[in-house]
Amino acid sequence: MFKPLIFYIGLRYTRAKRRTQFISFITLTSILGIALGVTALITVLSVMNGFEAELRERILGMTSHASITGNNGQLDNWRELNQKLQNYPHVQGSAPFITGQVMINADRRVSGTMLNGIQPDYEGKVSEVAAKMQAGQLSDLIAGEYSIILGAELANFLGVMMGDKITIISPQINSTPAGIVPRMRRFTIVGIFKVGMYEYDRNMALIHIDDAAKLFRMENAVSGLRIRLDDLFNAPAITRSMAEAFFGDYVVSDWTQAHSNFFRAIQTEKRVMFIILLLIVAVAAFNIVSTLVMVVTDKRGDIAILKTQGLTSGSVMGIFMVLGTIIGVVGTLLGTIGGIALALNVETIVPAIEKLFNAHFLAADVYYISYLPSKLIWLDVYAIAGMAFLLSLLATLYPAWQASKVNPAEVLRYE
């Protein structure tokens, strides 16, 4: 079917004559439609991949790959367990923590906050907060001095800065002769961190684990141990082996359980967006059908003459398949090149547009991330280009088959 003559005639039909300018315009719109659809699909998926990777990095940078707590919500023998974890396979580090919800009062402003008690010497093994300090450092948290480190957005909301005093109000209560009152303690701000994720920067504060034990009346116990693994994607298998090794005495969880709904929602959204944008590519690809139908109608005389000269029906079908395939290939190539270029430069283009129009598309207090990250995955590019080409090829079959059914006797009778 596909001989040099077939390719030659198919290529020749891509060039417009004066009387077929409209057909050439439809051909051009088909190419541009496929190109725009492929570009949009590659760019959107790259941005969503970037969002997912950035969120995962920021969430796991502040939390942990896995955690161990007791069946009653706290660990009493955490030092012994922490020593066991140092030699456990795939474990890179572990650190104790105490966590609880409190109210922070500064002058007339009050905010609910998640208060985390940490061991400064161990914290760097499981989180990246030490590298995200805007002022101060984790080592400034000294047991007994009741010092505190705030998220940047929380400090901004409270209107406080380094060295200021704030009051922590615990939900636990004290019984006094005057009645029942909440536990309160004055803390001094010794540091401010900013991880770039509003949820943490606005709603998290850090204190020394010994001060947290006194505030929450934990004595020698902790809430649990946070663990960093050498392979975060293998976390479910590693945590299952931990649970079996510790004979069910502890509750072992990993990041996929703690944030499963969140990342599952991202994956679902990616699939839906892929299907929606692929439909755009499909519509553009099936514009090839109308283009080829008009070309077949216009070239009926040529087809009849070629058949009388010995060209087979299969060869006629090949001519129009070549024509449709060229349209699909050109559109797919243009779209792929445009999509790759846009995906690799979206982090530069979007800020330039924001600066030009003096606008900010993603507000930090509304969205988890206030800029558009992008992560180009070549497997996605290959899949998108392949599907676009396949849809274009399928769109050529019916018009090409109709062309092969042209009867030379009927057409030439009126020539």
User: Topology as H/E string?
Assistant: HHEHEEHEEHEEHEHEHEHHHHHH
Poorly predicted sequence stretches spanning 5 or more consecutive residues: none
Give the N-terminus to C-terminus distance in angstroms.
Answer: 28 Å
Compute the number of structural domains.
2
Strand order of the largest sheet: 2-3-8-5-7-6
Share of residues in strands: 15-25%
> With helices defined by DSSP (H or I, 4 residues minimum), what is the helix count?
14
Strand segment tally: 10
Alpha-beta content class: alpha+beta
Q: Residue-averaged pLDDT, rounded?
A: 82
Structural Rg: 33 Å
* Large-scale geometry: elongated
Biggest beta sheet attributes: 6 strands, mixed, barrel
Q: Fraction of residues in helices?
A: 40-55%
Give your account of this protein's structure:
With 415 residues, the protein is of the alpha+beta class. The chain folds into 2 domains: 4-58 and 262-412, no CATH class; 72-248, no CATH class. The protein is built from 14 helices and 10 strands. Strands 2-3-8-5-7-6 form a 6-stranded mixed β-barrel. Strand 6 (165-176) and strand 7 (179-193) form a beta hairpin. Helix 2 packs antiparallel against helix 13 (378-404). It is elongated, with a radius of gyration of 33 Å.
Task: Explain briefly what this protein structure is.
This protein has helices at 4-12, 21-62, 78-85, 120-123, 152-158, 198-203, 209-215, 235-245, 255-258, 260-298, 300-308, 313-357, 378-404, 408-412, and strands at residues 66-70, 91-106, 109-118, 133-135, 147-151, 165-176, 179-193, 204-208, 224-229, 250-254. The chain is an alpha+beta fold and 415 residues long.
